[in-house]
Amino acid sequence: MEMELVLKNKGKRNRDFKEESMKYFFFSCALLSVFFIILISAFIFNGGFVLIKEVGIKDFIFNTKWAPLNTPASYGIGSMILGSIIITLLASVMAVPIAIFTASYLAFDCNKKVYKFLKPALNLMAGIPSIVYGFFALTVIVPIMRNMFGGNGMSILTASILLLIMILPTIISITESSLRTVPKSYYEGSIALGADHERSILKVVLPAAKSGIFAGIILGIGRAIGETMAVILVAGNQTRLTFNIFKGIRTMTTNIVLEMGYAEGLHRQALIATASVLFIFILIINISFFIFKKRSEKI
Predict the structure, then answer these.
(1) What is the 3-state secondary structure (H, E, C) of the chain?
(2) What is the pTM of this model?
């Protein structure tokens, strides 16, 4: 009896030790992640501060002339900020309705046999490397745009269509998951009150899942604004200020990739400062989502 009690206590101590060890291990992993974020942020913002101190934030953000090799050099990224915003907004405006209606179909109306095909296909799309999307757009979408609208086919619209395809799987998957978490009683209650199937989904289920849907949209926008390799192949990469969606433009991410290989001195600091501006954009997007989520929870 005493031996059994000793063995039980020993086994309990071993379990407690393992649980404590794993708890501290996971805590260390979390601290390591935070440390890397702080390290990256410090590197980016330190480089950006050097450039802004030298050039000035006004000339850097609002100047649209980018000519780092000229004498005197010009480090204005205004056209690239606008290019990133236009391409991202255009892709998001096109992607969000398609994603929401597709997710609604998958969650409520899709046949089980069709679902078994569509769902893995969407997951596969989410895992395809961006460079593959870029080559697809370069060989398929660009010639179509060239035949339809003239020019070389590389434009804001082409890049937006490409990003539309790339962010759809992310938004669809998260939206579908959010719709499935809504209690069935919401839908059944709406049907019982006389609403039809479509109205119940649009007016009851979708608003109930708005927090999750918005999270999917934010993740999609984050991928769109940070995309590089695919956009670099089809956006045209001209450093100019334009609102014409049929003309080429350069984004912040593509500017960094194109010139970091040979940049040095203040030119290199300007590219790091561009990364810090992009980082701030991502922070603003995530903070906006956090505020929206908190307000929606109070309603």
Answers:
(1) CHHHHHHHHHHHHHHHHHHHHHHHHHHHHHHHHHHHHHHHHHHHHHHHHHHHHHHCHHHHHCCCCEECCCCCCEECCHHHHHHHHHHHHHHHHHHHHHHHHHHHHHHHHCCHHHHHHHHHHHHHHHHCCHHHHHHHHHHHHHHHHHHHHCCCCCCHHHHHHHHHHHHHHHHHHHHHHHHHHCCHHHHHHHHHCCCCHHHHHHHHHHHHCHHHHHHHHHHHHHHHHHCCHHHHHHCECCCCCCCCCCCCECCHHHHHHHHCCCCCCHHHHHHHHHHHHHHHHHHHHHHHHHHHHHHHHHC
(2) 0.82
d(CA 56, CA 273) in angstroms, rounded, equals 12
Q: What is the pLDDT of residues 158-216, one digit of tens each?
A: 999 999 999 999 899 999 988 988 888 888 888 888 888 888 888 888 888 888 888 88
Q: Find where tokens 């003309």 sit.
A: 247
Cα 172 from Cα 167, distance rounded (Å): 9
Burial label for 61, CB within 10 Å (0-12, 13-18, 19+), is middle
Spatial contact of 107 and 180, defined as CB atoms under 8 Å apart: yes
Given the structure tokens 């205004």, which residue do they identify? 78
- Give tens-digit pLDDT for 247-292: 888 888 888 888 888 888 888 888 888 888 888 888 888 787 777 7
